[in-house]
Amino acid sequence: MRLTSWNINSVRLRAPLLAEIAEYTKSDIICLQETKTPDEFFPHDEIEAMGFKHRAFTGMKSYNGVAILSKYPLEDVRIEHRCENADCRHIAARVIKDGKEVFDLHNLYIPAGGYEPDPVANDKFKHKLDFVDELTEWFPANHKKSEKMVVVGDLNIAPRENDVWDHKKMLKVVSHTPVEVEKFTAFQNAMDWVDSAREFYPDDQKLYTWWSYRAKDWAAADKGRRLDHIWVTQPLKKHLKGHSVLKDARGWDRPSDHAPLTTEFDL
DNA sequence: ATGGTGGTCCTACCA
Questions:
Q1: CA nearest A94: which of A78, A80, A110?
Q2: A41 touches strand B (CB under 7 A)
Q3: Angle at Cα A30 formed by Cα A252 and Cα A160, nearest 5°?
Q4: What is the residue extent of each domain of chain A?
Q5: What is the pLDDT of residue A167?
Q6: pTM (2 d.p.)
Q7: Closest of A77, A21, A65, A71 to residue A41, by C-alpha
Q8: Interatomic distance A98 CA / B14 C1' (Å)
Q9: Whose CA, among A51, A219, A235, A253, lies 20 to 30 Å from A130?
């Protein structure tokens, strides 16, 4: 089974690229963030044609929006809200293969947090920190570490030194500040989540999933950040078979600023 | 130090 996560930055605009990515990554399941599309305009026909007969999604006009596209049945779809806010940033479903649940899948889009890394001066940064805090409490309150679970998404935090192009320069930049990393780590530890990327690309290697649109030559500058993640609970760790970032997709025509990432399971 | 780009939807707002 191959599972991909991609911040698509408009599912309507980039449905053709999605088809290429689905084929290229041979994905059975694709989780999207920033679909930016109200549910009534979700591009079902194009996605059905890609072979994803099972879809769970929640969207709104212009902002946010998450979707799970699957070749396997999805059950018990849950649309969750954090921070007493109606934003479409968390959707979950049970993935069913051969009549049995293989895992409970959670697709997240954590707030980006604005520019100023100060929760007093910047409400967006406060929202981001509060959102992560809520997740840290919510998962253990609603699930057990012994469950087979997967969390994917644009978590908008690059936690490790080699998850950014320059650790020292990035310490004051939202996405890599110490307070974000501290809360991110607490969230990860709360369920003993396994970071599937770092199972295959150790901490001493640079690994990114996002490159700014504003860079003149994003590939040459390579000032990336690893903002997107695929985590699994401990019972799934032995089923991890590989991980890759489709960096090439960042260089395709009219790209998202995020590259897709794929984890392969022997499930 | 600043501004650099892109999506949505028409005016800013978000990333």
A1: A78
A2: no
A3: 75
A4: 2-265
A5: 97
A6: 0.98
A7: A65
A8: 41
A9: A235
Position A230 scores a pLDDT of 98
Strand B closer than 7 Å to the CB of A214? yes
Name the CA dihedral angle for A218, A223, A228, A231, rounded to a multiple of 10 degrees.
Answer: 130
What the block records as the tokens of A26 is 């041979």
Q: How are strands ordered across the β-sheet holding A74-80?
A: A74-80, A90-97, A100-109, A149-154, A228-232, A194-195
Q: Is the pLDDT of residue A1 over 90?
A: yes
List, as own/partner pairs, every contact residues A174-179 make where C-beta atoms lie below 8 angstroms and the sequence separation is at least 24, other chains included: A174/A112, A174/A113, A174/A114, A174/A115, A174/A116, A174/A117, A174/A125, A174/A128, A175/A112, A175/A113, A175/A225, A175/A227, A176/A225, A177/A117, A179/A117, A179/A129
Residue type, A164: V
The CATH number that domain A2-265 falls under is: 3.60.10.10
pLDDT of A216 > 90? The answer is no
Spatial distance between the Cα atoms of A52 and A200, rounded to a whole number of angstroms? 28
Q: Which residue is the nearest neighbor of B15, CA to C1'?
A: A112
CA→C1' distance for A111 and B10 (Å): 25
Nucleotide with smallest C1' distance to residue A63 CA: B14
